Amino acid sequence: MKTRIQELRKKHKISQEELALAVGVTRQTITSLENEKYVASLVLAYKIAKYFHLRIEDVFDFSDVEVEGS
After folding, report:
1. Contact 36, 2 (CB under 8 A)
2. Rounded mean pLDDT, 37-41
3. Tell me: the pLDDT tens digits for 18-35?
4. For residues 37 and 3, is the Cβ–Cβ distance under 8 A?
5. CA distance 58 to 70
6. Cβ(46)–Cβ(55) below 8 Å
7. DSSP assignment of 1-53, as one string?
8. Are 30 and 19 in contact (CB under 8 A)?
9. Residue 24 half-sphere exposure, CB side, CA atoms within 13 Å?
10. Which candidate, 22, 60, 66, places its Cα nearest to that of 42?
11. Is the C or the N end of the chain the one with fewer CB within 10 Å?
């Protein structure tokens, strides 16, 4: 899943470590999210969006996510 996490971090001049501490995950989790190797849980997506004062859909791109039953 594509995200704007790296772009937002750079804009706000914060490190992966700082964001990780703020949302309660490891730096490796932030790295995996940025490299599209991990999909955030709804709770984590909410925490990251809230941290940047944005909506979840402003941080995460759901356009390529398959919906079951479709």
Report:
1. yes
2. 93
3. 999 999 999 999 999 999
4. no
5. 24
6. no
7. -EE-HHHHHHHHT--HHHHHHHHTS-HHHHHHHHTTSS---HHHHHHHHHHTT
8. yes
9. 8
10. 60
11. C
Q: Tokens 């964001």 map to which residue? A: 19
Q: Which structure tokens are listed for 17?
A: 């470590």
The two tokens of residue 24 are: 């309660």
Reading the block at residue 25, the tokens are 């995950």
CA distances from 53 to 13, 38, 61 (A): 15, 22, 17
3-state secondary structure of 61: strand
Nearest 5°: phi and psi at 62?
A: -90, 5
Q: Token pair 């979840």 is at which residue?
A: 56
Token pair belonging to 5: 């996490």
pTM of the complete model: 0.88
